[in-house]
Structure formats: structure tokens, C-alpha cells
Amino acid sequence: MTMPVMEPDLDAMLLRDWARAIDDGPFASLCWGERIAFTNPDSLTLLGALSAWTERVRLVTTVIVPQLHDPVMLAKALATADVLSGGRLTVGLGIGGRDEDYRAVGADPATQKMGELAAAVAIMRRVWAGEKITEAVLPVGPAPVQPGGPPLLVGTIGPKTLRSAATWAEGLAGITMDLDVAKQNELFDVGRDAWRQAGRGAPHLATSFWFALGDPDAARDQVRQHLLRYMNWIPAEYVEAMVPSTGWAGSEDELAEVLRRFAAIGTDEIHLIPTSSDLGQLRSVADVVAEVGNAG
Fold first, then answer.
1. Which pLDDT value is given to residue 293?
2. Exposed e or buried b for every residue in 231-253, given b needs 16+ CB within 10 A?
3. CA distances from 102 to 66, 69, 109, 276 (A)
4. What pLDDT, in 10s, does the model give residues 131-163?
5. pTM for this one?
6. Which CATH class name applies to 12-295?
7. Do 1 and 22 meet the contact criterion of CB atoms below 8 Å apart?
8. Are the C-beta atoms of residues 270 and 206 closer than 8 Å to each other?
């Protein structure tokens, strides 16, 4: 389950209640995304709070953009979170889709490339291995709890990008806009083949989608309002055109069937993305996930 970090009017109590409800529920992971030029909480600051608010679920960043950070400081922050969470951190990394986030922190949009991301990963791995990056007296710590550092996932929807990550990522943290299961499985097959050619084990295959529960019209409008707010860098008329086929809206039974269809193609994990901060929807989805899990 993804935290509602892109919703308006958030406060510490609401975020804490969501985190604890996710931790208490049947979910495997708690996820959240990064934006800079937006009203969402800072990802790394929130990571510290989530480490304290939860005890069981894995904490998954979906995704952090390394080019927006100093790689050594990012490695130090993530290692600290791995310590605070007791080794429950998984780090999703991507290049991001918004130039404005790069400009907001003084980063060059020309570095929005997979090669630049891979270079940052190499530096972070050196930090986590305890290597000295400079002639400092001591290396940059703390050492992460998980040997070699937290598992890394690549956030992408493109086969070329996925192939390029096979040498450093443990798998995929993707997204499906239209919930086309066959198309998602084609991307999974690209990952399976790329990891095999790289001489590695089977990749962790995760995807995500926006959701809203309830009356179909009201739920679809909830998705619409969320997309218009979140996709503010895209002209509104283009977002409106996307709304009918983007994300999922419907009943609990229909959501259960969607989850079963993705499970059937070998999806290891689905990162559900809320379009409301309503705890009632979270609890309803928890019931659906528990039912699907118990059934299969």
C-alpha cells in the first residue's frame, strides 16, 4: 500500500494513522513517492518517521531520483533508515519524469539518464560497503543492516530502461496506467530475460496502479480529481483524456479479481496507489487483500 503523500491537507497524525494501519494490515510493503516541486512531504524525512511508526512491513521508496541528491548523502540517509527500520528498507530508484524537479534543486535535466543513475548507484554501493570515498579518517557510515545495502528496484515502464538496470537492480518497481495485464506481462518477460542474460536470479516483479473504491461514477471522479492534481505538469485537457482508462475504480469484488489477474502472470507485488487519504478506503482494501491472500 502506498501512503497518500500526494493528497492535500496532510498532517502528522493522518500520516501516522495510515502508516500504522498499513503495518497492522495484510500488506507486505508500505510505499511512497518523491516529488520536489509539489506539496508532498520530503521523502527522506518521511522515511525516518515511517521507520519509527512501523515494525513489520517493508518500506519501499517508489521512487527516489538519485540525480536530485548528492549520492554520498543519499547513501548515508538510506543506510541510517535501514538501521532505524531494522533492515526493512527497499529502495526504488528512477530518473523521474519532471524537469521542474531537477531545476528546483539545481540539478541538470541533461543528467536525466539511466547512465547517470547507474553511476550514483555505484557510489552508494561503495559507501554501503564501507569504502572511503575520499581521504577522510573514517568511511561514511553508518553501515546498513542489510549486507551490501538495501535491495534496489528500478522504477520504469520502458523495456530499454529495464534491460539497462539488470546489472544493478534486484527487480522492477513499475506502474500500469491502463491495467493491461498482457502488456504488463510482456514487460515482465523483458525483465526475466534481461536478468537471465546478466547471469542473475529471477527479478522481483512489482507493478502499481491508482485505485478508488465505491460507486463507479464517484470512484472514477475520485481518480480524476487525483490525476488532475498530481499530473499538474501536463495540460489539463490531456489529463482529462487519460482519465477514463487510467487507474482502477469500482467495487471490492472487482478489485479482488484484478489482483488475481496480476497474480496469475507472476506479479510478485502490487503497490496500490490511493487517490484519497480516507482511512475507510484503506481498511476496505485491507479486507480485499486479506481475502485474496487467504484464497490463494
1. 85
2. beeeeeeebeebbeebbbbbeee
3. 11, 10, 6, 27
4. 999 999 999 999 999 999 999 999 999 999 999
5. 0.96
6. alpha beta
7. yes
8. yes
Contacts of 249 (CB under 8 A, 6+ apart): 211, 212, 213, 214, 216, 219, 220, 222, 223
Q: What residues contact residue 32 under an 8 Å CB cut-off, 6+ apart?
A: 2, 3, 5, 43, 46, 50, 61, 62
* pLDDT confidence tier of residue 294, bands split at 50, 70 and 90: confident
141 half-sphere exposure, CB direction, 13 A CA radius = 7
Return the percent helix, strand and coil in the chain, to nearest 5: 50, 15, 40
pLDDT digit string (tens) for 89-103? 999 999 998 999 999
Confidence check: pLDDT of 296 > 70: no
